[in-house]
Amino acid sequence: MPEMTLDMRVNGRKVTRRADPGQRLLDFLRDELNLTGTKEGCGAGECGTCSVFVDGKLVKSCLMPVAKAQGADIQTVEGLARPGELEAIQKAFHKTGASQCGYCIPGMVMAATSVLREAPEASLDEIKERMGGNICRCTGYSKIIEAVALARDVVTGRASPAVLEPEGVGDSYIGHNVRRLDAPSKVTGRLKYAGDMVMPGMLHMAVLRSPHPHAEIVSIDTSGAEAMEGVACVITADDVPGKDGFGVFVHDQPVMARGKVRHVGEAVAAIAAEDAATARRALAKIRVEYRELPGLFDPEDALKPGAPVIHDYAPDNVVKHIPIRKGDVDKGFAEADLILEDEFSTQQVEHAYLEPEAGLAYVDADDVVTVISPSQNITHHRHMLSEIIAKPINKVRFIMSPVGGGFGGKEDMIYQGMLALAAMKTDRPVRLVFTREESIIASAKRHPSRVKYRMGLKNDGRITAIRFEMLSDGGAYGMSSEGVMRKAAILSCGPYEVENLQVDTTAVYTNNTPSGAFRTFGGMQAQFATESMMDIAAERLGLDPFEIRRRNMMRAGSLTHTQQRLTSASIDRVLEAAEQASRWEPGPVGMRGPTRGDLGGPGTRAPCTLGARFETPKDSKERVA
Amino acid sequence: MQRKMRGRGVAASWYGIARTATVDRAGAWAELDDGGTAKVVTGVTEIGEGILTVLAQIAAEELGIRPEDVTIGDNDTARSPEAAHAGATRQTYMIGNSVALACREAKARLFTEIAAHWEVDAGSLVAFDGELRAEGTNLAMTMAEAVDLCKRRGVVPVGAGHFTSHGTGLDPEDGSGAPWQAYVFGTQVAEVEVDTVTGEVQVLGLWAAHDVGRVINPRGVEGQIEGGVVQGLGQALMEDYQTANGHPVTHGFAKYILPTALDVPEITSILVEDPDPLSPLGAKGIGEPALVPTAPAIINAIHDAVGVRIRSLPATPEKVLAAIAEKQARAAGAREAAE
Q1: Which of B:187-206 have CB within 8 Å of A?
Q2: How many angstroms separate the most distant Cα atoms in chain B?
Q3: Which residues of A touch B295 (CB under 8 A)?
Q4: Contact yes or no for A575/B187 (Cβ under 8 A)
Q5: Is A297 within 8 Å of A245 (Cβ atoms)?
Q6: Which of the four, A284, A400, A433, B293, has the lowest number of CB atoms within 10 Å?
Q7: Do B78 and A145 touch (CB under 8 A)?
Q8: How crowded is residue B323: how many other Cβ atoms within 10 Å of its Cβ?
Q9: Domain B23-164, CATH
Q10: What's the gap in Å between the CA of B154 and the closest CA on chain A?
Q11: pLDDT tens for residues A346-360?
């Protein structure tokens, strides 16, 4: 690796290092200087989590070779405030609750600092525009923008610094806006996520992934990689000592592909080496011979007779079917004045947590195999890993590191098994950090769904019967499909008391990227269909959308779709609250927009129009915003 | 039709709290520690939702100390009681109640000793914000003094708690069962502007009313609603993970489009409290329910604005334009047929 002497000032201190001039400024800061407050979110300049100042200019450090920073003055999030102190912008983030998982927050704080330095009088619109290059997946941006505006007002003297202080408590801490206790560690970049952690003697892992959606593995030859200098071990399915298989409901996924691959991006083998670059180079030395198999890419095709079988245990390709029956749907439809039939579909959705998967495993002095990772379910993961590595439960330890966004996407144990195996094989700590691309192709998505809907109603809007049929693409592995289908079925017909219903939800195996847990677990897909149907029905019957919902809503004493008796149901209260707060103008569903009187009032923003704008601030010096 | 058309839509929703159709459980340990501080140990950490702050508030309230005096750890299967997974909108409900119960036990130990020392009834003791007093008397001390006194009497004020949510499995034939013991409901109204030339939809306002049982931290709840709404907005209008014959084609953020600060509507959260009668805190949850009604509210608002019904998410500009063109062609066809 070529090296050169790099001189620069970092956070006010002179730094001189011999280093690879082609590495990214991001890696130099993180790996050479241990300034891990600067995070990698995408490695492609799209998300802004790696933002730093280079000679006063906000730069995405993943796009800059370190040689370009020669002689420059660099400021990272660690350099904003002295240890133990917070700048006004950091205090404002703390005050408004602008940090959630915190992974995007150092980049957000840097972008916000840039706003305050370059455009201290920025309007809300300009703040949003200037922050538009930074992605946050948790907060919905609202409290971040609020924080920037608050800090702006303090910095420009329009507000007293006292607005940044905590609110005094009344007679209870319940219901009180206690500031997030973890915020100071997030706004300063101090908090260590798994990918920031290092241990002495630590190896770095890279994973060989399947280029095929469905193929038999004829052979794997790891000898070329094993022979490379710097490679500590290569692992494949052959290294699993116990019962290979994990999954949230059915343990159908091997730690690494066993005999065949079922989706593009599936782990086939992994390498632990002295550094990440060596591990990645060694991947090219593993020879895998595949025999491609016919693939399944559409859930309808998966159910056809003669379809390729993805898992031997499920010859019909069905992961799970959940039926719900209540009352008599034929009778319900016979009583209906109006019968509506329609179809709805939702897409596959990526969790896009800003922290890509990462983990660190080691075997401790008591032979306890320990995995530190942002796992959303350490309890279940240790059960599964103990079976996989054939050790008792108390010899398996999972530590949950701060999760840089999960949303269900970090419930699947898709890499912790590989880390444990490599740590056991080398007796050294091993770390794996996914790239963004790896995270996207290897992790589960929100189930895409297709819903066939049939709804019968009386002329007064009362629902007499529903037939609801959902087909979901579970992808290559079961993951959370069973639970997602169950929740989709239970919640399917919405917060309405329906006397007669027939609900079926089915997830099938295909060779697409697996679907799994994602915030709402099937609930949103199902209720998207139901809430669309409610408006379609209201339009046909000439009813206001709130009115049709009230005529059908659950109440205390109602029987749910699964025939559970409710002791209370707050749907009446939330309907009324939303109606009042939005100053809803009642009227039957239709194309009412052109005649509505309730548009554009309090609680709305102006439409966003990008481009140059001229503003004349109070000092009447015109400037381009 | 004008170029920019506005409209509004509503969607309602419901959701169950904690794990589905099964018995859910969580455990926690608590200790009132030197200096009037506390240790709370339970097997979970932050995934961003604010659970550590919520648990610190709960512990502070139950123990009579301040949230910043609570140390929470240790998200570790070898060091802490099972709290199970960080999902299913179960953290505040399951772990929050476990922590409350553990703290109550620890506080009861302390109160027994202090009451004996003061020769008053333990039921008369009240602790809040680091101060302890006996009601109806002038007796008072700090919680730091109380812990010290308790320990000098030979007692370490520790407690353990666990909480159970009694869901039942579904019948395999008709699906009947009681999958959750606590339900929440929500309603959202969206106001959109549709550009009928480009097909672009902007969400300008969103009102979100959600029952959360009991609000522990209002800003935290708002943060969950705002984040959920924006994820719902992304799914409604732009996000689309695509594969071609199994090969992902949206494998980076350049291809997989996410909402940015410029896409976000003004969001008004309305927090409704229908306390859960089956748990000590009465709080339920908000994490997942917040995003359930967003996409249908936006899609219903698009219909209100331009009279087209999008049945397939996301409502991309291409789909919206095609639907408008189809509607106009239908209208033209109907005019022709009438002539």
Answers
A1: 187-189, 191, 193, 202, 204-205
A2: 99
A3: 346, 524, 528
A4: yes
A5: no
A6: A284
A7: no
A8: 20
A9: 3.30.365.10
A10: 30
A11: 999 999 999 999 999
Q: What does DSSP assign to residue A445?
A: E
- Give the mean pLDDT of chain A: 96
For testing contact with chain A, the best of B184, B195, B214, B251 (most A CBs within 10 A): B251
The C-alpha atoms of residue A206 and residue A285 are separated, in whole angstroms, by: 12
Whether the model clears a pTM of 0.90, i.e. scores above it, the answer is yes
Name the catalytic one among B119, B288, B318, B326: B288
ipTM of the complex in this document: 0.97
A574 vs B208: CA distance, rounded Å:
9
Q: State what percent of residues in chain A have pLDDT above 70.
A: 97
Q: Say if CB B270 and CB A577 are below 8 A apart.
A: yes
Retrieve residue B297's tokens: 């509210």
How far apart are the C-alpha atoms of A537 and A518, rounded to whole Å? 29
Q: Does residue A85 belong to any structural domain of this protein?
A: no
What angle in degrees, to the nearest 10, is found between the helix axes of A416-426 and A378-388?
50
Which of B4, B69, B243 should be substituted to probe chain A, the one whose Cβ sees the most A Cβ atoms within 10 Å? B243
> H or E element: which one contains A52?
strand A51-54
Q: Tell me if chain A has a CB within 8 Å of the CB of B167.
A: no
A542 burial type by CB count under 10 A (0-12 exposed, 13-18 middle, 19+ buried): middle
Q: Is A443 helix (H, G, I), strand (E, B) or coil?
A: coil
pLDDT means per 10 residues, chain B with 339 residues, are: 96 98 97 98 90 97 98 90 92 97 98 98 98 98 98 98 97 98 98 97 98 98 98 98 98 95 98 98 98 98 98 98 97 86
pLDDT tens readout for residues A483-538: 999 999 999 999 999 999 999 999 999 999 999 999 999 999 999 999 999 999 99
Minimal Cβ distance to A182: which of B52, B214, B288: B52
CATH of segment(s) B4-16+182-334: 3.30.365.10
Distance of CA A219 to the CA centre of its chain: 35
Alpha carbons A492 and A215: distance in angstroms, whole number: 36
Asked whether residue A15 is domain-assigned, the answer is yes
Question: Which CATH number characterizes residue A13's domain?
Answer: 3.10.20.30
Q: A38 is in which domain, residue-wise? A: 4-79
pLDDT greater than 70 at residue A613: no
The gap from C-alpha A356 to its chain's centroid, in whole angstroms, comes to 9
User: How many distinct structural domains can be found in chain A?
Assistant: 1
Closest CA to A77 of A103, A95, A43: A103
The residue extents of the domains of chain B are: 4-16+182-334, 23-164
In a domain, A72, yes or no: yes
Would you call B200 a catalytic residue per the annotation? no
Residue A31 belongs to some domain of the structure: yes
